[in-house]
Amino acid sequence: MDKIDYLILDDRDGQEWDRLGECMEAMYSSLESQGWPFPLAEGGAEMWLKPVRNTIGRFGRMVVAKANGSIIGFAHGMIKFLPDYLGGHAIGFVTHIYVDNNYRETGTGRRMVEMLEEWFRQKKVHSVELQVITGNTGGIDFWKKLGYLEELRQYRKTL
Predict the structure, then answer these.
(1) pLDDT tens, 72-86?
(2) How many CB atoms lie within 10 A of CB 20?
(3) Model-level pTM?
(4) Could you tell me which CATH number the domain at 4-145 has?
(5) With helix as H, strand as E and coil as C, how does the chain read?
(6) Adjacent-strand bridge partners of 6
(7) pLDDT by residue (tens digit) across 132-159?
């Protein structure tokens, strides 16, 4: 197996940021096959990356996995705050995680999540939350193995 390197991107890592768009497109293609009802819009990856890049450091973190000079995965986390009536706690939120199919079951996803969790600890968040598509059984199993518990279910009705 190829050696995998893990990077934490800052806003100066232009070349790496540019490559993330391809991973985002591959991820959303996979999500559609699992039942996600919203395909990525034309230019959607770039639309997502711009605000993400602007929050890196203080409220966001991007972890990238690379093998043979190519990005094979990424994980993005951010900090959000509960409303005051719920204590105003800082909450870590894993917005996206993706690992190329050829590198799954190698510990790549686990390592990227550990790096996000460490950053969340440094930021003194109360807890970490995320969402998984119901049809993504592999993702559900992954998060359970990492100690995450199902907390709520989301329902949608298309009108």
Answers:
(1) 999 999 999 999 999
(2) 24
(3) 0.92
(4) 3.40.630.30
(5) CCCEEEEEECCCCHHHHHHHHHHHHHHHHHHHHCCCCCCCCCCHHHHHHHHHHHHECCCEEEEEEEECCEEEEEEEEEEEECCHHHCCCEEEEEEEEEECHHHCCCCHHHHHHHHHHHHHHHCCCCEEEECCCCCCHHHHHHHHHCCCCCCCCCCCCCC
(6) 65
(7) 998 899 999 999 999 999 999 889 898 9
